UniProtKB/TrEMBL annotation:
Listed InterPro entries: FAD/NAD-bd_sf
Similarity annotation: Belongs to the carotenoid/retinoid oxidoreductase family.
UniProt source species: Elysia marginata
Highest taxon above the source species: Eukaryota
The protein's name in its UniProt record: Pyridine nucleotide-disulfide oxidoreductase domain-containing protein 2
Cited Pfam families: NAD_binding_8
Length: 532
């Protein structure tokens, strides 16, 4: 029997391996492991053919993607990584000499605290830099009485948030706190569900009475969550079904605020805020927890590869074997995974610069020192939420949009290990780009650079001098993300309520226990996959 286990965004499938035999101690250890951490296991078919060409031991208790839990349970585990670096989409790579890029996934928030504690990831090297404030939306055109461009800076300080929003609407300044509190109440109600596997009805029906009671634990958690929502149940239903635009229009009137929040609802998805069900993703941005702070987001020191390396360190410390450049894929899994929606609108652009972006709305005043807004997710082209919808429509027609949705982060503003002194790493998560261009055009170097130049021209409107500061860039279109990271269509699975954890399972074994995270490129994964 082979096992597949993924608790973060490394979703490369395992082939049914031949010759890798399970030792006789499997059944005893697996019974103990399955009882304690079964929510993280997916049973796969028995190995059939000899897997030649690898210098591996002939006997392992399990072959997995993600090994730390199994190894801690006492199994003898082998991990096979397709690329030269472990971590799937959660990797750090030095594409431009001296600059370390979180090349795909770039923010940490949704990794479950239980996993971080169980695997003692801090002990094994994980260091994070919390962000506060966390969101910055500069406007390109003058809009204030003083003739200057405005900006919107949001963080954990409720009074400061109200002050910032009041620049655009006094009504919205009062409403924002209640909006956040309602989302937080809903998240608190559904939080117990997040560490439970989906219910397998065949398993429940065929199991003993004792096992039936245990198998129904997620159902009991679900009923408890519904009960605890109380008067928020209607709002929860609307979040799960309604367009984000409808929800935001009811709460707020100022477009910069609505557009900033609307980006949360479509991040990593080929969808518009006007699509039914897009409201669900608004929850993902308050569902995380770091250092005991609900809804916190952070940069990982050394880049997102630091998460993967800490997990690997834990696994190896308990005896796991890890082999890179060993890509394998199961045809059974391929056939099932093709049924999921992998349509990606994302082009990730990683940039090395020799100075911080200098925004017209908030000019640099500390010399070369980062200002508070530099540590945020910086939202560009967010003057109006209609711009997001228009960019989506362009992508639907296979066009390269002229006004892409851009989220910029500068992790080197808090993590000085990523770039030479005075220089910085700028990561651009951009939407919407089609997987296939109109007229049969390819994402060749010409079209890659054409799109990147459009993105840089947009940034230049907000931060003059940006283009001149660029030392090098790494452009990853949806086909590139598929080729390099194995993300079919450039995505690991669309994040909407029909493809979330409790609906997102594969056949095999007696239980559906594959646990998905979030979009590997966004902040949503257990490292953000929607997902990053």
């Amino acid at each position: 029997m082979l096992f597949r286990f993924h608790f973060y965004d490394n979703v490369v499938s395992l082939e049914t391996l031949n010759s890798v035999r399970l030792s006789s101690k499997y059944s005893r250890k697996m019974h103990h492991f399955n009882r304690n951490v079964s929510s993280h296991i997916k049973f796969l078919p028995t190995a059939k053919r000899l897997f030649r060409g690898l210098h591996l031991k002939p006997n392992y208790d399990a072959i997995v993607v993600g090994a730390a839990y199994l190894q801690k349970a006492g199994l003898d585990v082998c991990v096979l990584e397709r690329r030269h670096v472990i971590g799937g989409a959660a990797v750090t790579e030095e594409i431009v000499p001296g600059f370390k890029f979180s090349r795909a996934s770039y923010l940490l928030s949704l990794m479950r605290p239980q996993i971080m504690n169980d695997l003692e990831l801090k002990k094994y090297g994980l260091k994070i830099h919390l962000r506060n404030p966390s969101s910055y939306t500069p406007l390109a055109e003058p809009g204030g009485l003083d003739g200057k461009a405005k900006s919107l800076l949001l963080g954990r300080d409720g009074q400061e948030n109200a002050k910032q929003i009041a620049q655009f609407s006094q009504k919205d300044a009062k409403a924002f706190s209640e909006y956040e509190h309602q989302l937080e109440r809903i998240v608190s109600a559904i939080d117990p569900l997040l560490d439970n596997p989906a219910v397998s009805l065949p398993s429940v029906m065929s199991s003993s009475l004792k096992d039936k009671w245990s198998s129904l634990k997620p159902v009991r958690a679900l009923m408890g969550s519904v009960t605890s929502m109380g008067s928020d149940i209607q709002a929860f239903y609307e979040l799960m079904t309604a367009p984000a635009q409808k929800i935001l229009d009811r709460w707020f009137e100022s477009e910069p605020l609505k557009a900033t929040l609307a980006t949360d609802s479509v991040i990593g998805a080929m969808a518009s805020p006007q699509h039914p069900g897009s409201g669900y993703v608004l929850l993902h941005h308050v569902m995380g927890e770091l250092e005991g702070i609900k809804g916190a987001w952070a940069y990982v020191e050394g880049g997102m590869g630091g998460v993967s390396q800490a997990i690997a360190n834990c696994a190896e410390d308990h005896g796991s074997s890890i082999f890179c450049d060993k890509g394998i894929l199961a045809q059974d899994d391929v056939d099932q995974l093709k049924q999921f929606d992998y349509t990606s609108p994302v082009t990730k652009i990683n940039v090395a610069v020799d100075q911080l972006p200098n925004f017209t709305a908030d000019p640099n005043s500390n010399g070369k020192e980062p200002m508070p807004h530099h540590q945020c997710t910086i939202h560009l082209n967010c003057e109006d939420s209609s711009l997001i919808h228009d960019a989506y429509l362009d992508a639907q027609q296979g066009k390269i949009t002229e006004r892409p949705m851009i989220e910029m982060v500068i992790p080197s503003s808090l993590d000085q290990t990523l770039a030479p002194s005075g220089s910085h790493v700028v990561l651009l998560f951009t939407q919407f780009t089609p997987y296939k261009l109109a007229g049969g055009a390819e994402w060749d170097d010409h079209n890659r650079n054409k799109y990147a130049d459009i993105v840089f021209d947009v940034i230049e409107r907000y931060a003059p001098g940006f283009k001149q500061s660029v030392i090098g860039r790494d452009i990853l279109t949806p086909p590139d993300l598929e080729k390099i990271f194995g993300l079919t269509g450039g995505l690991s699975g669309l994040c909407h309520n029909s493809s979330s954890q409790h609906a997102h399972t594969l056949r095999g074994g007696k239980n559906n226990r594959t646990h998905h995270a979030a979009h590997p490129l966004s902040p949503h994964t257990f490292i953000r996959h929607c997902d990053s």
